[in-house]
Amino acid sequence: MGVFLVIGDTYRNRRLLLVPHRIAIHADSIGWTVRNDIIWKKTDPAPESPRNRWRSGHEHILFLTKRATGYRFNTDAVRVPYAAATLRRWGAGQSYGGPKSRQRKDAKDSRMRDGQTFKLNSRGCLPTDVWTLPASNTSQHHYAAFPEQLVRPIIEACSHPGDLVIDPFVDSGTVCRAAVLSASCLKAVIVGPPAILTPARMFLIRARSIGEGFSAPRLRFGL
């Protein structure tokens, strides 16, 4: 099972609170494995006018798993083309050699042992842990809506069609749309009073009652 937490940071008394880092360290202490601290670099960060520090322009996406191995991760579903510079430098493969690699005698030392070779994957490479994306351009009055380009790779990498995707808030509906397009089953847990019905929540309730061509989501209202 994979869990993704999108977490921004904040200041108190001019001190950055390091909220994502504290959550990651606490998750590790209670048995979760922190597999990635992905940086969402925003191309259109919110306006602010600090006088003695740099503007904030990113959020953290913590990728947590209950086990260090054996969880689902579909690498081929999210591969991207290699950069031109990578192809120029490594396109013909590489053979390691030199004094440093010759010191690595044990097979467990490193893959960069003397004489070891590698070639680039013909299907492309995995994206890095820095994602440069804009904030969502939804017309809804929701400050923290996610762009679909942020959600789709996560669902495609960590689920198969028919798997369960849980969205604990269902505000702007980005996760709902991405799960439906990926043919995943969605469990929508709506946090808050049912009187607060965004268009995404109305869509889910309507789909629950009449069926919209996908597995009807299970809804729960409450805090």
Task: Describe the 3D structure.
- There is one protein chain.
- The protein is of the alpha/beta class.
- It folds into three domains: 75 residues, no CATH class; 45 residues, no CATH class; 88 residues, Rossmann fold (3-Layer(aba) Sandwich), CATH 3.40.50.
- The chain has six helices and eleven strands.
- It starts with a strand and ends with a strand.
- The C terminus is likely disordered.
What is the number of helical segments per DSSP (H or I, 4+ residues)? 6
Structural class: alpha/beta
Give unreliable regions as ranges. 187-197, 202-223
Domain module tally: 3
- What is the H/E order? EEEHEEHEHEEHEHEHE
CATH architecture of the largest domain: 3-Layer(aba) Sandwich
Biggest sheet, open or closed, and with what strands and sense? Answer: 4 strands, mixed
Q: Which word captures the global form?
A: globular
Strand content: 15-25%
* CATH classification, class level of the largest domain: Alpha Beta
- Average pLDDT works out at 77
Say how many strands there are: 11
**Regarding quaternary structure, how should these chains be classified?**
single chain
Classify the fold: give the CATH topology of the largest domain.
Rossmann fold
* Radius of gyration from the alpha-carbon trace, in angstroms: 21 Å
The side-by-side strand order for the widest beta sheet comes to: 1-5-4-8
- As a percent range, the share of helical residues equals 10-25%
First CA to last CA: what distance? 24 Å
